[in-house]
């Protein structure tokens, strides 16, 4: 196998860095959860487990899994394994970037407008659907979710300036 993690052949991405970075990310999240669980109480009280008991031990297991994965990658550092081809990474990024923009937009424009924009973008860009169908679905789906969550279940989701103009 002629793959390298330095992408010397230009066509593939190796396993070591994605595995190591995800493992370290898991360990960081787990450390935060363990720290906060200890803050709110991760022990056993007279009436049973404290609020942070189960989150602490789940995070501890998560930390251990991340440490194991990171350790395996460090031990196998010179071993060459293919994670993905560059074309596959590009394909994933065509979905990841719009999703990241969607999440970033939610605090500013609300979940309904952000969802309409995301649905419209994906239908136009990836589905190549007609404009009328794209607009109908991009407006209809968030509107249906608004009715279900805000009116039927009475669950308030993040709203933006459009909902404020409409009095919601």
Please write out the topology.
Blueprint: E1 12-14, H1 16-40, E2 44-45, E3 48-49, H2 53-75, E4 82-85, H3 86-125, H4 131-152, H5 161-165
Antiparallel strand pairs: 1-4, 2-3
Characterise the protein shown here:
This protein has five helices and four strands, in the order E-H-E-E-H-E-H-H-H. The protein has about 170 residues and is mainly alpha-helical. The protein has a two-stranded antiparallel ribbon with strand order 1-4. A two-stranded antiparallel ribbon has the order 2-3. A hairpin with a 2-residue loop joins strand 2 and strand 3 (about 50). The longest helix is centred in the middle third of the chain and has 40 residues, at about 85-125. The chain is flat. The N and C termini lie far apart (about 60 Å).
Report a brief summary of the structure.
It contains 5 helices and 4 strands, in the order E-H-E-E-H-E-H-H-H.
Percentage of residues assigned to helices? 55-70%
Biggest beta-sheet profile? 2 strands, antiparallel
Poorly predicted runs are 1-8
Strand residues, percent = 5-15%
Distance between the termini: 59 Å
Radius of gyration: 23 Å
Observed structural traits:
168 residues; mainly alpha; two-stranded antiparallel ribbon; 5 helices; disordered N terminus
